[in-house]
From TrEMBL:
Organism listed in the record: Chryseobacterium soldanellicola
Pfam families found in the cross-reference section: TPR_19, YaiO
SUPFAM superfamilies with a match to the protein in the record: TPR-like
Highest taxon, organism lineage: Bacteria
Keyword hit for Signal: yes
Keywords associated with the record: Signal
Gene3D superfamilies: Tetratricopeptide repeat domain
N-terminal signal peptide: 1-20
Species lineage: Bacteria, Pseudomonadati, Bacteroidota, Flavobacteriia, Flavobacteriales
Name of the protein: Outer membrane protein, YaiO family
Amino acid sequence: MKIYFRSLALLVFFPLQIFGQQNLSAEELFQKARTAAFENKDYTTSIALTQQALEKSPNYTDISVFLGRLYTWNKDIDSARAVFEGLAKRDVQDEDYFLAYASLEYWNDQYAKSIEILNKGLSYHPQSEALWLLKAKVLYADNQFEESEKAIKATLAINPKNTEANSLAVKINELTSKNAVSITYNYSHFDKQFDDDWHIVGVSYKRVTPIGSVILRGNYANKFAQNGTQIELEAYPRLSKMFYLYVGGAYSGDVGLFPKYRTGISLNANLPHSFEAEIGYRQLYFSSNIWMYTASVGKYYKNFWFNLRTYITPDNKNISHSYTGTIRYYTKSAQDYIAFQIGTGISPEENRNNLLENETYKLKTFKIGAEYNFSVKKNAFSLGTMYYNQEYLPNTKGNQFDVTLGYTRKF
């Protein structure tokens, strides 16, 4: 009996529903289609409503562009292209049309076609923030990093606070030049823990390859009035558009000033909505191994980058924790920023990592510092300072003051 009444209701009301939709205006059908797509994720119904709207207003460009987007989202690529090609024959010049059509080709790895569409769109809309940003993303995906950098600069000239543009600018900055040489100098002064100041100089060469960057670095240190050297090799192979690796290793014959061996691997992800994340390990070997596990999460917001990182060091008795929070404010490019940092514990990446041998990472450490980076053409300069309050013996604290200078030349 229930099935009978359901069938009767369907026979009565379904024709009425269709009749009601036939009496709706194109604008009303368009709004219902948008509701079906965005609120219900019902693309099939939305496509049907959009097609009805176009029957009433076949030259309504916004509805046609929306239909093309619907086909794109529903993975009906041929139908989407047919809609956009039809608009091209009508010589449509709407910004949203170029954005939708170029996005279709970008998402389907047709980078050359996407750039062709975007260039035409920018000829009509040279101040379009959305078109410039999409062009930067397409060029980046096509490994045209220098051209992508030009497009991202155009985007930021229109809106310096564009979150996605600032995020992409940082990634592009690492890839625009095939080579880079850097030199850094770090000075450390202790008020109690050690009698002698520390001096550390690092010289590195970075080469950008088709699969990612490779960095070779040599370090010289004068600690405890003794000299020592270390050699490091790091690589950042790209696995996909979203994922890349950090792989690093180092060796030194001057144990105590540096660990004898250092290794590390991390998986990094460029996530949606300008988030990024990392998870991995670091291993240091002095007279025995120290294993540290790391995780971090970062977020770009307008001109800012926020990052929180932790290092966790387990042993037989307890687990030691290190936390560092960083905020960067980008001024005019990815190489121009002011940074502020605050945290606890010792990081294996710090020049103080030889202190980990004596298990001082199990004692309390507070640190706070700032950094300023600026660029002049292909030259980048950095100045940083850091203050540490270190419990180097149980219930005994000392202060450390660091100053770091850096210079990088790209070519």
